[in-house]
Amino acid sequence: MVDKTKQTKRMKSFFINAGYDILLNEDLDNLTVRNIAKKAGYSYATIYNYFKDNNELMWSIGFKAVLEIADHLSKYYKANKNEKKGDELLKSTYKKYISYFLENKNVYQFIFFKQFNDISLDEKNSPPVLFNLQQEMMKKCVDEGFLKLKDINLVGDLLTNSINGVLSLYFSGKENITEKDLYIKVDRYIDFLLKKEGENKSD
Predict the structure, then answer these.
(1) CA-based angle 94:95:99, to the nearest 5?
(2) What's the number of CA atoms in the CB half-sphere (13 Å) around residue 92?
């Protein structure tokens, strides 16, 4: 007897993986339901047996992209967490985050600029993998005296929002920001935030 839940999950993965492949390797304009179906080897109509609409399919592709980024950064973090101090590890991991998007511009534009309608998916209730990784790095900084425990959420928000902000400006072309500038800003942001926290560690 066929397990319908497993079959549905498998079929959905065919379309999600096909869409993710287009996202990585083709123009963003090519990420359409028809092209996804064609790459997956199924008819256009078949997609709607597994996804409510185009919005749900695209959201699922975006979620896969986030998981891939998190996996990429997690592997780097685990390989280096015992070799680098907290501040240097934070810098190098965020630089990996930047370099990933510089190599995959479509992924950044899709995740941060694509508008999704409100949907109800199991994935929306999944653990925030990138946030959890950031928290682990922040706690290492706390253990090494760079940061106060009570401030890790605020510092994390400021850092992530700042870096995503300059990435958005870089990709928009509205300001004269170079790739080198992006990496320099990572060092400056982290040095500033951790220095300010370190100075007030006794508070």
Answers:
(1) 120
(2) 15
Highest mean pLDDT among 16-20, 56-60, 133-137, 199-203: 16-20
- Output the CA–CA distances (angstroms, integers) from residue 167 to 8, 64, 84, 90, 175, in the order listed: 37, 21, 25, 17, 11
Is the Cβ–Cβ distance between 110 and 62 less than 8 Å? yes
Tell me the mean pLDDT in the region 154-176.
Answer: 91
Same domain, yes or no: 82 and 161: yes
Q: Is 56 part of a structural domain of the chain?
A: no
Range of the structural domain that residue 31 is part of = 1-51
Q: In this structure, are residues 186 and 91 in contact, taking their beta carbons and an 8 Å threshold?
A: yes
* Residues 60-101: tens digit of each pLDDT: 999 999 999 999 999 999 999 999 999 999 999 999 999 999
**Is 59 a member of any domain?**
no
Token digits for 177?
Answer: 């920001």
Is residue 57 a part of any domain in this protein? no
